[in-house]
Design goal:
The complex is a heterodimer of chains A (131) and B (346).
Chain A lengths: L21 E6 L3 H11 L11 E6 L11 H10 L4 E3 L5 H18 L9 H10 L3
Parallel strand pairs in A: 1-2, 2-3
Chain B lengths: L2 H13 L5 H8 L4 H5 L7 H14 L4 H14 L6 E7 L10 H15 L3 E7 L4 E8 L12 E6 L4 E5 L7 H12 L3 E9 L2 H8 L34 H15 L9 E9 L14 E9 L3 H8 L11 H4 L1 H4 L3 E6 L7 E3 L2
Parallel strand pairs in B: 7-9
Antiparallel strand pairs in B: 1-5, 1-6, 2-3, 3-4, 4-5, 7-8, 9-10
Helix pairs in contact in B: 1-4, 1-5, 2-5, 6-7
Chain lengths: 131, 346
Amino acid sequence: HLATSLPLPSERDHLRPRIDLVVFMIDIKSKYSLKNVETSLAHVDGSFFLGKVCFLVTGVGRVNACSIETSAICKLGKTYCSPVLFCELELEGIRVATAQRLLRMLQICAGHIPGVSALSFVSLMRNSDDD
Amino acid sequence: MDDTVAEYIRRTVLKIPRDEIKMMLQKWGFLSEAQLQTLNFHQMKDNISQEVVQLCEENSADIKQAAVLDIIYNHIYQNKRMWSVYQMKKSAEELEYFDIKDFKKKFKRRLRSALKNVTITFKEYEDNAIWIRVAWGTPYKKPNQYKPSYVVYHSQTPYVFVSASVLKSNMPLLCQALIVASNYHDIREMELRSHSLNSLKDIVFKRYSQNFQTCTTKPLQGGNVELENADIRIIQENRSEKERIHRLNEEVFGSGPQPKLEFAQYRLETMFKSDPKMDVLDKKEPFRCLVKFSSPHLLESLKSLAPAGMADAPLSPLLTCIPHKARNYFKIREKKGLFPGSFVSP
């Protein structure tokens, strides 16, 4: 399901399946994009932040066009205890690899991988934030 | 043939891309077809221009003919120049029959009475456009052929498009000559400038597709809205929002191509409104600020802002009023009186 912002339109509530993973896409070239994500985060139920939320930053290939600082995004990820992925959609290889990563995360969040749950992401994050 | 004329012709030919030289010389019509046949258009441009100058020498070209070649070049490459728009006002209401000979005579007489050293050249085109080239001199110097002004006048309209040379001091004289020749009584510069002459014409002649307020609330069919993927597994949650944005955009911009402008400039003379705690600019003076939007195609990029998710729809009327108000330079002052906020000054 693609949405431009949260909350989701209520008229489709009855048609929506269970949501296993929420990926917030931030375009590093647009401050408006970050602002939009920040306001949408307020509409997410707290239980999602146990591994079912992820930030995907796009457009990182164009170094000259960055409007948002990576420190701001990493801070966002830290505040919400959610992983931050960086990718460049214009390059097919990275696009495919990112899609595969997201798919793998989704499988775990949906409970399709025995022995691993979404809570694992939270503990993985704690370790990588040691600087 | 004068040396200065020869040099001018040589430099003008050098400006033309090699593949276009033959076509432009044919349009010029000063050299005969037989003479053109003798030219080798596959050699270096330097050599081509030398040969052209020699042929012109044979035909005894003078500055008048050279000026026509320059008009032809600038007519084809009109988008290299920056054009501004002037609007003339008539005092009398009756429409007078426009006589081109009379116009030319009056124009030349008016200019020459003020300044002896000018070169004035006219060329008419099929779309009723009269191109005027003026090379300016001083009472003591011959006209500078390398910095002429160009004027495009559509006789059935009160609009004149001017690409002034760097010598701006000649503008009042040029304006006077125009109103005298065309039987108007006043002329003013509009706040509208662009490189694309055709787009300026589109805007003032209202030839672009305009929006009309629609009263129907029927939503667009899904097929009209741009879909990134035909994959049916992707569900767009905000389809109705996307359609609303698309509809608003169509209402504001129309569905046709937009006139081509390169920038919009807003000069702010408003008060700085800050948080009282911030303690910035206590003095109640206007905060002077210039905001300039530039783009290879400003109006198309504004049109694509909301669908691309970069701005909320509807866009600020300060941006969307550009074609209707026929201006891309604005002065925004504080509105005094009943309504707080800013307004656009004429």
